[in-house]
Amino acid sequence: MHFVISREALLRPLQMVSGVVERRQTLPVLSNVLLVLKDSELSLTGTDLEVELVGRVQVDQAKKPGEITVPARKLLDICKSLADEAIVEIKQTDNKLILKSGRSRFTLTTLPASEFPGVEEEPDTFSLTITQAKLRDLLDATSFAMAQQDVRYYLNGMLFEVAADYLRVVATDGHRLAMETVGMKNSISETQQLILPRKGIMELARLLSDEGGDIDLTFGQNHIRASIPEFTFTSKLVDGKFPDYNRVLPKGGDKVMTGNCQELRQAFARAAILSNEKYRGVRIMLSNGELKILANNPEQEEAEEVVSVDYKGDSLEIGFNVSYLIDVLSTLGSNKAKFTLSDPNSSALLEADEGSDALYVVMPMRL
Fold first, then answer.
1. 63-74 pLDDT, tens per residue?
2. Would strands 157-162 and 214-220 be described as parallel, antiparallel, or unpaired?
3. Fold of 2-115
């Protein structure tokens, strides 16, 4: 393998692909990135056996095709450290990779491409096409509610529900739930549910750009593949049954309050400073025209915030984890937030007052 490429052209795909590669690996080859030069196209592949990302870039001069794996982190650090307008020459000799740029010369160890694991091929079951900007909106609006390391492993990811006329994404960690739906025509006869793992969601979100065009999502029995011209992303699906989110959505809340999203978020953030660091609980007292937020901690410190809201009805006192409320209010892309509540033991339904289909459910806390 022997080619010449500009640092700038090499850096972006290398950064994206290196994000998939785990720093600590049991298999040495999994710390490497696979380089394949064919004609004038260089492809770079990184994988952790769960998620695989392939980036493609045109080289300036393709002198000799070939394939090899090199340490991802070291190659990335070298490219980052070179001058912005640097030209890079990469050449494979025996079992070493030599990288030259200006007066700099680096020799990296390699492992054969034959040792690099690939994702097993499987028949596709169905696919859909969506704009990158829309998919990014869906993920941004819901991904914060995914569980991190829950023993209920199916919660450490996001549900994609695909029907003939919509795509819905749902995330929950058992204490809160985020859901958004987008109407679209899909060529499937019955509704499908698939769970993408947390890391897959994070890497997919990094790929998407608001200026980018469409992205093709192809679902198989065990994998999802996302394709845009310069990248192909593949992730294993989580083998499990996602909880029935319809049972979680609160029904029949009779207390509807709307307030300024930013004012509410700032008030909750200030009250959170003096909440219990472990439980993060705040008490909310809702009455005609105002919302009072109370927080205290074991040091006997107290915070009180009063916010004017649009509400008429019976007063209500209820406790919540303040971090969950702040997360939702930070994500809502509207001026006004709408809270639907019923009693101190029932979940709250939060949504934008207008312009968004996203729904959020937050369970109450006993304080």
1. 999 999 999 999
2. unpaired
3. DNA Polymerase III; Chain A, domain 2 (3.10.150)
